[in-house]
């Protein structure tokens, strides 16, 4: 770190993030189809050629937005798995809370993904669906292990991971920062609901 | 029934349904913003003035699409509530199964609603959100009654109705008719998951 090369890559990451952030806001507010790269460039006060030096086209910006939430969720899952934990119950509670916080923090990105995924190229769409499937699969394994360890009820099907993924993914649709419930209350409810679904109460 | 007036209103309902059906397919496949009333008219082999005799504008067709699933869900809820039932557990299982089947049957409409709701007028959006809130509220009451009757676990918060609504609403995102699981398997899983969430296992 600190040498020219890493500084340059930090600049690139910074600029890429700023583009993704501005585009996400625009796509969220106006819809992907109604937005052009001219709008994105104007929002950032840059030229269109500047955007093209970071992204091939509008679709590749959309792909970066759509990928962000699930990529962060997978990283969080790996971090929790790698750390010490008292039980599978504890593990599930920690993963769900972390990923729930990501989804609330990245609410706009997740909503853009859910609304606009049909505009992704099939390569991008497949890649993101594989990441989602990997997340569900790992949660499924965690639940299977918890059942085998006698911590979760014996009749719980690991497929319940898809429902837990649904609970998490559904938050951005109804949660509002201006609503009655704080983010942490929502996370607490989410953890309780997920533990119930896993038969880990 | 059978007189001229009711036959006429049947014709109107039939034509309205056909318009909503064709528009839903187009909005689902191409996105609302990319579709014009010309596309809808061409799809049906009718003129644009024909469409205007049934709908004020493109947005009012979208509103009809978005309203359809939740209207059918509320009707199903009322029917189940009005019929005999052995227990609150039974009541919840029946409602969730019925509404789950509606959501699978109306998959395209629900997906269009979730993707395109931001294009609704605020009057239509508010009306549909009130219908959704009424559904969640009635499920919340059912759960409260079940807790008071000692059928559901005492520490279950009626707010869990929002999570159950989430499970149901999430199905169209991941369920595929060509997938590994039949619709009835999905419904069975949905009922089990909802009963777990309500502490009614």
TrEMBL record, chains A, B:
Keyword Ion transport applies: no
UniProt-recorded name of the protein: TetR family transcriptional regulator
Annotated HTH tetR-type domain residues: 13-73
InterPro entries per UniProt: DNA-bd_HTH_TetR-type_CS, Homeodomain-like_sf, HTH-type_TetR-like_transc_reg, HTH_TetR, KstR2_TetR_C, Tet_transcr_reg_TetR-rel_C_sf
Origin species: Qipengyuania algicida
GO MF annotations, alphabetized: DNA-binding transcription factor activity; transcription cis-regulatory region binding
Keyword Repressor: yes
Regions recorded as binding DNA: 36-55
Pfam families: TetR_C_24, TetR_N
Any coiled-coil regions, as ranges: none
Keywords (A to Z) from UniProt: DNA-binding, Repressor, Transcription, Transcription regulation
PANTHER family: HTH-TYPE TRANSCRIPTIONAL REGULATOR RUTR, HTH-TYPE TRANSCRIPTIONAL REPRESSOR KSTR2
């Amino acid at each position: 770190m600190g040498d020219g090369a890493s500084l340059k890559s930090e600049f690139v990451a910074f600029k890429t993030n700023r583009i993704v952030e501005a585009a996400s806001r625009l796509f969220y507010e106006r819809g992907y189809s109604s937005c052009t790269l001219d709008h994105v460039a104007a929002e950032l006060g840059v030229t269109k050629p500047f955007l093209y030096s970071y992204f091939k086209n509008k679709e590749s910006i959309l792909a970066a937005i759509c990928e962000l939430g699930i990529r962060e969720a997978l990283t969080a899952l790996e971090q929790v798995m790698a750390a010490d934990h008292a039980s599978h119950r504890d593990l599930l509670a920690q993963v769900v809370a972390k990923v729930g916080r990501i989804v609330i923090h990245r609410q706009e990105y997740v909503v853009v993904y859910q609304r606009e995924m049909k505009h992704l190229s099939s390569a991008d769409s497949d890649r993101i669906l594989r990441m989602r499937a990997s997340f569900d699969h790992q949660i499924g394994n965690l639940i299977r292990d918890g059942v085998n360890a006698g911590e979760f009820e014996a009749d719980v099907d690991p497929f319940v991971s898809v429902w837990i993924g649904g609970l998490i993914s559904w938050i951005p649709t109804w949660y509002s920062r201006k609503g009655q419930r704080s983010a942490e209350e929502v996370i607490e409810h989410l953890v309780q609901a997920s533990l119930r679904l896993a038969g880990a109460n």
